[in-house]
Amino acid sequence: MINVLYVHGIGSAGGGNTVELFKKYFPNHYIDSPDIPENPKEAITFLRGIANNYDIVIGTSLGGFYTMQLFGPMKILINPAMDAPTSIANIGMGEHPYFKPRKDGKTTYVIDTTYIDNLKTLYNEFFNNCFDFESKIETYAIFGNNDTVCNCQELFKEKYYKENMVTADFGHRMTEEVFVSTFIPLFNDIAKELEE
Fold first, then answer.
1. What gap in Å lies between CA 83 and CA 68, rounded to an integer?
2. Which pLDDT tens digit goes with each residue over 144-173?
3. Cα(32)–Cα(57) distance, rounded to whole angstroms?
4. How far is residue 12's CA from residue 15's CA, in Å, rounded to a whole number?
5. FRET partner for 92 with CA separation of 20 to 30 A, picked from 28, 29, 48, 116?
6. What CATH number does the domain containing 128 carry?
7. What share of the chain is helix, strand, coil (3-state, %, to 5)?
């Protein structure tokens, strides 16, 4: 059994569509999908505190931005907002509704200058450090060719190994068809490597 942590994106909560697909197609593996703290600094501290309890961490969008900053487990980034300060600012300043209910009962979140500044701090701290070999080989990514929210394919190729990147024809949100055709083979390859 593979222990998996799923890190959702901004405006979402634990237990989204990707989690449901994972449970449907991988009933013998364990997937944990907690609500991630809203504050970026609290989010990365929280995730770094639990990441080593898992074999693989999957992060989508802003969750991918956080996931790439974790060290130890294998990582799969799905349309990661690697340029988070820019991508998140493009959503628009102000109050936004959550796509699904959170366990803390909050129904809205706020993007303001403090939030963006916190993302910039994390971005600069991460990208100003050297990428070591282990960090590169343990990080994979799936990008949607039709993603108009945040398309960071070139940044991934610049910072990581392009051999660890796959693309498919979908937008920002992964469809079940792409999950089956693209995610499952990648996940199975990583799981096989872990089990060897």
1. 12
2. 998 888 889 999 998 888 899 999 988 888
3. 10
4. 9
5. 48
6. 3.40.50.1820
7. 45, 20, 35
What's the CA gap between 98 and 90, in Å, rounded? 17
Domain that holds residue 144: 3-195
Tokens of 98: 């959550």
Element (H, E) at 142: strand 139-144
pLDDT in tens, 94-103: 999 998 888 8
Q: Which pair of structure tokens corresponds to residue 32?
A: 């944990």
32 phi, psi to nearest 5 deg: -110, 135
Counted domains in the chain: 1
* Torsion on CA atoms 3, 88, 143, 154, rounded to nearest 10: -120
**CA 170 – CA 113 distance, rounded (Å):** 31
Count of CB atoms situated within 10 Å of the CB of 192: 9
Residue with tokens 């083979």: 185
CA distances from 34 to 6, 44, 85, 96, 145 (A): 8, 13, 23, 20, 28
